[in-house]
Amino acid sequence: MEMLHLHQHRRKRYLAHHHPRGVRAHPSFCRIILAVYEPDLQCPKYMPAGSYYLNLNWDVKRIAYEDTLDHAPPYIIYLDHENHEIVIAIRRLNLVKESDYKLLLNNRLGMQMFDGGYVHYGLLKSAIWVLNNESETLKKLWQENGKEYKMVFAGHSLGSRVGALLTVIVVNHRNELLGIP
């Protein structure tokens, strides 16, 4: 009986925290990450109750699996004028896809030195691929919209690791992206 009570208490806390009405209160990039899973934001299949609360005109670029040529998970670039952010949101790895397994397994302990430590080689390659493919887009968006816009690299699950590596790469090489502060 004690376990049932504990489970019910945890479930109520979980539901209170994760209820769809709470999605609006989350930072905008969380909703953008959720939108990465949609094949078409005009006709959403997985929309939380209410809406994603995204302006479809600000969806700059959507990169599907076919477009990544098995180098990275799908992602979107979203220009959030309301919060003055240029967001790259990266989905989690889809372990049903063989290419994602290859990316995840492309690593050996001590294989890749990075910024004073070691990093997962496959995820680093993925981050570098995204940056190489999107650096011109990011530069253009930053120039056209003003340098007060922040760049946000976000993701879900292993996509967040790619986003974190993107952040470190951009900070270490900001001169290549027009001297981002």
From TrEMBL:
<dbReference type="GO" id="GO:0016787">
    <property type="term" value="F:hydrolase activity"/>
</dbReference>
<dbReference type="InterPro" id="IPR029058">
    <property type="entry name" value="AB_hydrolase_fold"/>
</dbReference>
<dbReference type="InterPro" id="IPR002921">
    <property type="entry name" value="Fungal_lipase-type"/>
</dbReference>
<protein>
    <submittedName>
        <fullName>Alpha/beta-hydrolase superfamily protein</fullName>
    </submittedName>
</protein>
<dbReference type="InterPro" id="IPR005592">
    <property type="entry name" value="Mono/diacylglycerol_lipase_N"/>
</dbReference>
<feature type="domain" description="Fungal lipase-type">
    <location>
        <begin position="106"/>
        <end position="175"/>
    </location>
</feature>
<keyword id="KW-0378">Hydrolase</keyword>
<dbReference type="Pfam" id="PF03893">
    <property type="entry name" value="Lipase3_N"/>
</dbReference>
<feature type="domain" description="Mono-/di-acylglycerol lipase N-terminal">
    <location>
        <begin position="27"/>
        <end position="54"/>
    </location>
</feature>
<dbReference type="Pfam" id="PF01764">
    <property type="entry name" value="Lipase_3"/>
</dbReference>
